[in-house]
Every structure is written in C-alpha cells, then in structure tokens.
Amino acid sequence: MVLHILLIILKIIGIIIAVLLGLILLLLVILLCVPVRYRMEASMPGEIKESTVRGRVTWLLRLIRIDVSFEEQELKWRVRIAWKSFGSEPKKEVTHGEENTDREETRKEQRVESSSRLSKMEEEPEEEKRTVESSKTLPENVEEIPESTPEKAGRFAKIKCTILKFCDKIKHTVGHAEEKLDSILDKKERIMKELEDPVHRKAFSKVKKEAGKLLKRWMPKVIKGEVQFGFEDPYHTGQALAGLSMIYPLIGGHLLVEPDFERRILKGKVRVRGGFRMMPLVCFLWNLVWCSEIRKTYHDIRKFQL
C-alpha cells in the first residue's frame, strides 16, 4: 500500500516536471522561431524639416508592438504589450479660455513695451545734450605721458621669457611626437605580425563567412524607393555617397540614389519591410564558439598588449 502511494506521488512529480519542461521548450521555440516583423516608410518632400518617417515592429501575432514616428521635427513612440500600452504623451489641446487669456497677456506686454519705448525716445535727446556739454568742458590739448624706462625694460623681459617658454614647449612637443611615432610604428609591426598568422586568417575568414550568411537571412524582403540628396558643400555630398557605396551591393537593385552636388535637397520616398528570427543568430554564435581557430584568436587577442 505504501509503495503504491509512493509510486503515485512519483508519477505526479514526473508529470509536473514533464509539463514544466514542455513549457520551457515551447517558450524556447517561440523565442527562436516566431519572426520579428518590421516595416518603415519615409517621405521626403525636399527639406529635412518637412520629412516624415514612420516605423513599426511587431512580434507574436502583434501581441507586442512598437510604433515610432518622426513628424514635424518631433519624435513620437508607443509600445503595446497585450492590452497595456505606454509611450510619449500627446500634446495638450488648448481650450478657448486659455487662448483668450494668452491673447490678453500678449496685448498687455505689447502696451508695456510701447510705453517703455516712448520713455526711452524722450530720454535720448537729454542724454545727447549732456554728452555734448561734457565734451565741450574737456581740454582741447591733452599731453601724452611718456612711458618710463623701467616699465619698458620689464616689458622686454616678459616678452623674452614668453618666447623662451614657447621654444621649450615646441622642443618638448617635437620630442613627444617622435616618441609616439616610434611606438605607433612598433605597434603596427606587432599587429601586422599577428594578422599574418595563418590561424588568425582562418578565424577572420570564418567570421566573415558566417556574418554574410546571417545578413542574408536578416535582409529585408522589400526595399523600394528613390532618394535624391545633396548638401550645401559638395564635399559632404561626396562623403555621403562614398558611405552609401559600401552598402550599395545590398540595396543597389532596389533603391535608386541620386546625388545633387549643386544644392541642398532631400527628396524621395522609401519603403522597407521584412522580418527576422533569432534562430540564425543562435546558429551563428554556435558555429563561432565551436571553431578552434576563433577560440585561439580570441585568447591571443586577450593576451595581446599594445
């Protein structure tokens, strides 16, 4: 009888443990396999001030949603988790009574300013008369006081001291710059030696390969639009174009980018939509951790001192 009771208790405990393990596995599957979806729309009529950007991120059948918008140079955001939501507070609406009080206050301020201006206009001619009278009373010829010779000698000594200090600073900075240059060259040789190691090369190529796979899986499904941009200085436009050229292989077939080197402009429309899962990230980290070359390179980087 006692043995039967113990078996029933153990059976209940086993069922509870199995249910808990099943719930944990279900949560892991949801976290890793349910995609996080996002979309973004931007419209630019010609000026940065007039541009509007709207974005949304949803997860778990929109039970979790994040909305972000940038309109009229104001950033707004809102997060909703199931039935609860929070975010940036909307602007308070101004009632008619508040508008009337504001108008009365502005009228009072204008009256006070006009009265102060009239009083200043009346006081200005009196001040001008006083200044003319005071200028008449001043003596016409003012004798220049010659500087004494000891003061001149003190000034020359101060100038000499400052010049000598400046020369010493130049010598010190030049010597410090030479020391820094020597240390940089030494560090460069050591870094190049570490990079030329075949084990480290294999590790870097492995990281590059796995990162490329992850980016391909996380790339947006839809990228459409055309953008015309330009800055006041053509140099900055060229710099921005050089930065975009780094990601052009990824967006070149979907997004048309047109630089304008003659004027400041930001015009066009862009639409981005896609989603990603966390499972590829777990596979990426797993492949990196179990690579012997990457582990050895990681330990060498931690031991390496410049």
Please summarize the sheet with the most strands.
8 strands, mixed
Overall 3D form: extended
Distance between the termini: 74 Å
**Average pLDDT across residues?**
78
Reading side by side through the largest sheet, how are the strands ordered? 5-4-3-2-1-8-6-7
Structure class? alpha+beta
Keywords:
306 residues, single chain, 8-stranded mixed β-sheet, extended, alpha+beta
Description:
The chain is of the alpha+beta class and 306 residues long. Among the domains are: 93-124; 152-196; 198-303, no CATH class. It has helices at residues 2-33, 96-137, 149-195, 198-218, 234-245, 248-251, 279-289, 292-303; strands at residues 36-46, 52-59, 64-71, 74-81, 84-87, 222-230, 255-259, 265-276. It is extended, with a radius of gyration of 37 Å. 2% of the residues are buried. Mean pLDDT is 78; it is low at 91-96 and 131-148.
Helices and strands, with pairings:
Blueprint: H1 2-33, E1 36-46, E2 52-59, E3 64-71, E4 74-81, E5 84-87, H2 96-137, H3 149-195, H4 198-218, E6 222-230, H5 234-245, H6 248-251, E7 255-259, E8 265-276, H7 279-289, H8 292-303
Parallel strand pairs: 6-7
Antiparallel strand pairs: 1-2, 1-8, 2-3, 3-4, 4-5, 6-8
Helix pairs in contact: 4-7, 4-8
